[in-house]
């Protein structure tokens, strides 16, 4: 089987973003459940989705790579918690990665 030939993955990126300002608790995931530590919503919560692009300052590739790494970590955690009823990969992709890739609007007549 192919998986026996692959190296065991490392811990990956740490979910330490987005940082809170002042004395506020940052909207980071509580592992292994991947719910927001502040509002209890599935992470990335609405507030994290607003703060992360600001923190990455328009670096869409960097944000996408960061979110993809966290998606991988969430998959590992969530499937270990519930191997038979874990979330579908498409659901996790939409939750973690798809929203972060901002696209430019199509302009009619532009070449």
UniProtKB/TrEMBL annotation:
<protein>
    <recommendedName>
        <fullName>Flavin reductase</fullName>
    </recommendedName>
</protein>
<feature type="region of interest" description="Disordered">
    <location>
        <begin position="1"/>
        <end position="32"/>
    </location>
</feature>
